[in-house]
Amino acid sequence: MPLVVGVVLVAGLIAVSVVVASRIWADQDVFLRGPVAGAVAAGGVLILLAMVAFGLVRWRISRSYRKGLDEAESQAQQERRRFLLRLDHELKNPVQAIRAGLANLEGGDLPSDAANLIRSTDAQAIRVGRLVGDLRKLAELETQPLEETEVDVGELLSELEGLAGPERTIKIVTPQAPWPLPPVWGDRDLLSLAIHNLASNALKFSNEGDTIEARASEEEGDVVSIEIADTGRGIPSDEVSKVWEELVRGSHSQGVPGTGLGLAMVRVIAERHGGRTLLKSQEGAGTVVRLELPALRSSSRG
Known about the structure:
This protein is of the alpha+beta class. The protein has helices spanning about 1-25, 35-105, 110-140, 155-160, 190-205, 260-270; strands at about 150, 170-175, 185, 210-220, 225-230, 275-280, 285-295. It has two domains: about 1-145, no CATH class; about 150-295, 2-Layer Sandwich (Heat Shock Protein 90).
């Protein structure tokens, strides 16, 4: 629409200039008189109308093009979700059958090499099963209705205390003065899943003795910020921009179990709650992952 406004202004200036010029020339006995001056003025109006029409056509074409792109993207997302759900359905039973067959083989008197091969194959079958299951969960996350309620972020973070195990700790920092964090409005289970995924990543990619913090704060613009920070191995700078993509596992994740879908789930959950995700990392120093969510304002603090 700004294009149309610009066209109208330019065309209007042209038309006005033509009319004024025709009158001046008519008064000065230069070239234009009577009907000729009127014809020039009419020509200016026609130019104005033509340019306005041209601008409107371009705007309509641009809008139709954008609408077509949005519809194509929506259809592609629907096809992708259907594919993932079908993939889970088709692979679930074969993976279970493979594991059952391997379990029967383990009971026999086998050489150590054969036993190791069976265990390795079973581990890979488990990984495939988890991968397919996580893909299904990701597809469902994008469309399932949210069971929204008022969510206490500090309470969600407190659930991380037992996640680290007896030899690890997650330091939890939430503001208490001059007031506690405002709540957020959303699906408590999904927000809990997102925070647990971030904390699990911090634990997986750090070692005993490293520092892990889960902290929350209130930011400008009525935003609650949740950060999970660690002093672990970090992420190479050329891989940071890819971490939110599905099935992406960076070079830093070699030897660490996972499907490459945890951060993709966190991103989807944040977007469905009207929030966003951010990540900063330095290789060898650590990583900070931030989840930003709209704060719920039920009353004024005064």
